[in-house]
Structures are given as C-alpha cells and as structure tokens.
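Below is one such protein, fold included:
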Amino acid sequence: MDGALNRNTVHRLVRYLRVLEQLKALGFLKVFSNNLGDAIGVTAAVVRKDLAQIEAVGNKRGGYNIDPLIERISRLLGRDKRQYAVLVGCGRLGSALLDYPGFEADNIEVSAGFDLRPEAVNHSGSVPIYPVDKLEEYLEAHDIPVGILTVPDNAAAEIFDRLVAAGIVGVLNFTSLQLKPRPGTETDESERRCFVENISIGLELANLFYLVRMYASM
C-alpha cells in the first residue's frame, strides 16, 4: 500500500467493515463491490478503488472473500488490538459517551474520564472519573493516544493544549470551538503533532434541515 489513506477513504473503510461483519453474521462468504457500494451509498468503482488501495484481492466473477477482507481492514484500522482513549468533560454528553455500548464492537475502550466538578468524580464506576488536575499524571502513567473533548467551549482551548502537551496525538472534539490540527516538528518537543476531528452536532443538523427544505421545495 502506497502512502497514507485520506480521511474520506478511512471513513468508507469503517463503513465497509460494518457491512462485512453483518454479512458474515448472516453466513455469507463472499461479497461484490456493487453490494458494498449499495450498502453505503457509493458506486462499485469507488469500492474497487478503495479496496485496491489496501491491496485487497478480488475479481469480477468471484468478488471478495469476506473473512480476509475483514481481517485486512481491521488490521489497517487497528481494530485487531484494543485501542484506548480518555474523555475530558463528564457532563450530559460526556456521560452519554462513557456509557456508549458501541465502542466495544470497535474494540475501543474509554479508560478514564476527567472533570472539573468535584461532584462528578467517581473512582468506582465502570469508567473511573478523576479530577481534571490528575489528567497529566494519568496520561504519563498510561499509553493513551486519543482524547475525547466534551468540555464547555470556554475551556476547550486550554484542555486541548494540555492533552497535546501530555502526549495525546488525536482528539475527537465535540465542542463548538473548531480546533486546528497540530503538524508537529521533529526538532521542537513543545510543538507536538496532534490530529483533530471536529464534531459539530449543530452544523450537521443545520445541513440536514437545509436538505429537507430543498427537497420540500422541489
């Protein structure tokens, strides 16, 4: 495989994987590119191009064998190993994410939560919640690559800086503040690399309402 995959390709691979696992559970052994394309709303040509990028082997008559395709995509996405994250901001949204059962299916574990409010601290829950001033100490003791950010907007920039400084290299940001990825440098330890995925629920809803209005006016 030559080079890194772009974000859109990775998103599609995640969706292919879910479809493949569903097909496997139904007893299917093979799948065709048009089946995967129909399932996630892209053309068969896009599917073939994506799978060619990860060097998945298939043919026009026989399609793709599901088991090795699941194994290949899972390994590429890191799902063949347990993946860990921390969450900062254990309010309503943060608490809902801590309880989200879908992480387990993707072999992801949120190992700890952190919050500014003393009343939110709970060491005995299914996911322990610590005071936010323990964040750096926890990250130093554990090899955690990803942080989930659900703090109030006015705290987002500060917590983001702390996560990056503590060694987090990927942040899933649910605040309305648009955080910028950090490219990092090889010579300056203070300029660490960090990838950012900004999730704006309001923006996605606004886009959906726009599409609904456009459909209604046709």
Observations:
- The first strand starts at residue 30 and ends at 31.
- The chain has a mean pLDDT of 92.
- The chain has two domains: 7-77, 83-203.
- Strands lie at 30-31, 64-65, 83-88, 108-115, 129-131, 146-149, 170-173, 195-198.
